[in-house]
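Appendix B. One record, verbatim.
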Amino acid sequence: MSIKIYPLQFEPILKERIWGGEKLKTVLNKPIISKITGESWELSTVEGDISVVANGELKGKSLTDLIDALPNEILGTAVYSRFGNQFPLLFKYLDAREDLSIQVHPNDQLAKERHNSFGKTEMWYVMQADTDARIIVGFKEDSSKEEYLENLNNKTLVSILDDVKAKAGDVFFLETGTVHAIGAGLVVAEIQQTSDITYRLYDFDRVDAQGNKRELHVDLALDAINYNKVDTYKKYEKTVNKSNVVVDCPYFTTNYIPLNGVVKVNKKGDTFTVYMCIEGTFEIRYENVTYQYKKGDTVLIPAAMDAYVLNGEASILEVFI
């Protein structure tokens, strides 16, 4: 395949969820038609949900086909040597009209043994928050399997979990094993390992349109949970026109760029970069072509794009391996 390298956008993969709403359209301009759209998968190679290019000469090509054809040019030499042809991250926007279920994700070892999958370390950037919107992140105090099960069986689990008020601009980093739930009234940008493995612990006894409760995974979760209190809130700098580190973990690095004007970018080619536009508008200038982006857009910069310019007034998340 002869591939011209340029900034790649992908068709959003829209997901209805029992807890979803319409903010992905009203806040982020996603083409939803359902009143219960909970997720827009922006960049994915999860089986059955492979992202497809939406712009330029490669429109209609799948991300997996591009990686198979030019792995070093798309992924980068370091990423390819570590992950092979796998795209290691999954990018989403979420709209929680109602509380999400209380859940936990397994680590790499458990996920590999049980599901032949990566684990699911993730982070949330809060893009919009209703008044008094909250999230659940871990236990209030160090707990135990026994205390957890007692409260789960008594339907008092929420009483021992740490719920935190969330506002726009807040960042939470969730290592595997952290019990969590996004609360009602939040729009969140989520960056995570490529995994769709979730153990649902409690769903507030909700039923779907057919009167059915969603499946719980209580037994699977017991060995996946970190029963200790954890610190998930991330403080970060906001220096204009700089890449301010927000999260730096073994699976990804996320920077926050308050863009106001022009920033020149030079790269080595060892990793791809992803930009999520979380406020404002900006453009990328590459090889005498200008590409425009607005709030809610996500763009993949192939590793072979080693020099380009960002220009505009925007808040941007910059993610790479």
